[in-house]
Structures are given as C-alpha cells and as structure tokens.
Specification:
Distance between the termini: 28 Å
Radius of gyration: 15 Å
Structural class: alpha+beta
Bound molecules: zinc ion
Order of helices and strands: HEEEEEEEHH
Number of helices: 3
Number of strands: 7
Largest sheet: 5 strands, antiparallel
Helix content: 25-40%
Shape: globular
Strand order of the largest sheet: 1-2-3-6-7
Length: 167
C-alpha cells in the first residue's frame, strides 16, 4: 500500500508537525507505509507531513557510495529529532518528492549530530555527514513546514517559479 504525496504549493506542507507521544502498532504501520510510498517514488527521504500527517516522523534511506543502491538495512526511522550539533558547510543538488522534477543546489551543514526516538520510543543519537546529513536536514525542514526551495537565493527561486508556471 502506498499513500498520496502532497505537492507544492499544497498549504498542508506548511504545517508545523507535532511530536509523537505514542509508539504503538499504528505508528509502525505508518512507518512501513511511508517506506513503501518513498520507494515507489524512488525517493531517498520522506516526512510524514508529505503524506498529510503533521507528526515529527521522517524516514531516510540514502544509496551507498560504492554502488549507488538503496538497502533497506540502511533505512533510518527518525522520530522527534533534535539537533545537537551542526557544523561546516556543503553544497548539494537537492530534489523533493513534493516538488517533482525540480533540482537545485543548496547550502547545508556538512556534519550534524541529532537525538531522536526509534519506532519503539528508544532514545538514539546519530552523527551524519555528506548526503545523509543533507537528507536529514531536508526532512527535518519538512517537520517545520519548510521546503528546500524556500532556501534558494532569489535568482534560483525565480527560476523555480518560472519552471513551475510552465507545467
Ligand atoms: Zn522533501
């Protein structure tokens, strides 16, 4: 089963998501369905708000460097994330399942550390760099109602608006 993904400029994407308090079967089903939805759309990350649920839940499954393939064992299920550290700077060409067919480079922190809860409510800590770090920052922005196109400098933003009108 897959869920419908909300697309820009759907206003629901602007909601601020609320923390998860109950770590039950319903949450597990949602996480499983989010994974199927992300994979069906060839995504590397998905936030719950992208399927219309304003909860602080995201999943990320970045491809491995050696073969550019996604492995389910690398899947991260991140609930109620909080940044502990954000360092450095890097550029990455980003895309988003809610902003289909548009890619643009953005500036992100190169290295992040965050705390979060897993699907059982256990406290976890994660340090990430490179694509994983970018993907996590991108998805956490979704929890705060932000899209990567909001971060673009004015000229790139105009290019985006222009491409959007062309569709
Ligand atoms: Zn996105």
């Amino acid at each position: 089963m897959t869920l419908e993904i909300l697309k820009y400029p759907d206003k629901r994407l602007r909601q601020k998501s609320m923390p998860v308090e109950v770590f039950d079967k319903e949450l597990h089903t949602l996480l499983d369905t989010m994974y199927e939805t992300m994979m069906a759309h060839n995504g590397v990350g998905l936030a719950a708000i992208q399927v219309g649920l304003p909860k602080r839940i995201l999943i990320v499954n970045v491809p491995r460097e050696e073969d550019n393939e996604q492995y389910k064992e690398d899947l991260l299920e991140i609930i109620n994330p909080v940044f502990l550290k954000q360092e450095g700077e890097m550029e990455w060409n980003e895309g988003c399942l809610s902003v289909p067919d548009f890619y643009e480079s953005t500036t992100r922190f190169a290295s992040i550390t965050l705390t979060y809860k897993d699907r059982f409510g256990n406290d976890k800590i994660l340090q990430a760099e490179g694509l994983l770090s970018v993907a996590l920052q991108h998805e956490i922005d979704h929890l705060n109602g932000m899209l990567f196109v909001d971060k673009l400098p004015i000229l790139k933003r105009k290019k985006f608006e222009k491409e959007l009108r062309r569709k």
